[in-house]
Amino acid sequence: xxPPLVSVITPSFNQGRFxxxxxxxxxxxxxxFFLEYLIMDGGSxxxxxxVMERYGRLLKEGxxxxxxxxxxxxxxxxxxxxQADAVNKGFRSAKGGILGWxxxxxxxxxxxxxKAKEFLEAHKDVLMVYGEGYYxxxxxxxxxxxxxxxxxxxxxxxxxxCQPTVFLRRRVLEEVGFLDPDLHYCMDYExxxxxxxxxxMGHIGEFLANSRLHPETKxxxxxxxxxxxxxxxxxxRYGRVPSSWVFAxxxxxxxxxxxxxxxxxxxxxxxxxxxxxxxxxxxxxxxxARKTYNNP
Length: 296
Known about the structure:
Number of domains: 2
Number of strands: 9
Strand content: 15-25%
Distance between the termini: 39 Å
Radius of gyration: 20 Å
């Protein structure tokens, strides 16, 4: 059989201090496959373009060791409409039968693509596979394991799929479509939900990627906006929002209004959070909402 073409997309915008690690982790992947690597940059002004150019030259001049059957490396730097739009542009340009997506501050673990490719070859009925992942800090040190889950029926309760560990068959785009460009924080979470409702997913019990935590990430710097978007998305997709998300939403809203300090303030925060959580749950779901998440 001819080795498959695997396409990996990296959306990027002003991640100059991390993108080199991302690029190296992708083009260093080893295995019996051809790699197409597409970087969709949103017009960075922080040195990202220089990094992308440098690795393009290294590959073109044969100065980077290729450990797979071949690497086709492309990048563009132009204004886009956000991360989801950049990923969608990459998906539309990609030629591979297997698709991956890794952000410009995350990294693949050696062997990630090989393991995903072999899993999909062995499980023809699986359209999307995901693996285990680590949280890493700004310096690339492991913080902890990403809280990956296996029960897809519980996906409404938490986003337990580590985004850079995901690999898709091209058929997913044909049957489910692309990312929702109107979402700016939970576009991956919403995509997993849509896929889970129509297609079979698989899990690899090995570590495939690292998800970086740092203050500039969108979900860290704009927690309230991210939580509000997730709550609204879950309400649309399932008809109600699970209590875990409602409590998280109430907690973040209060954090924006109260500062922790003295024991009294801490006690007050917890008391008000409890009342606020109950209010938000009733407001979002209604007092008699009884729908389950198994068959949204």
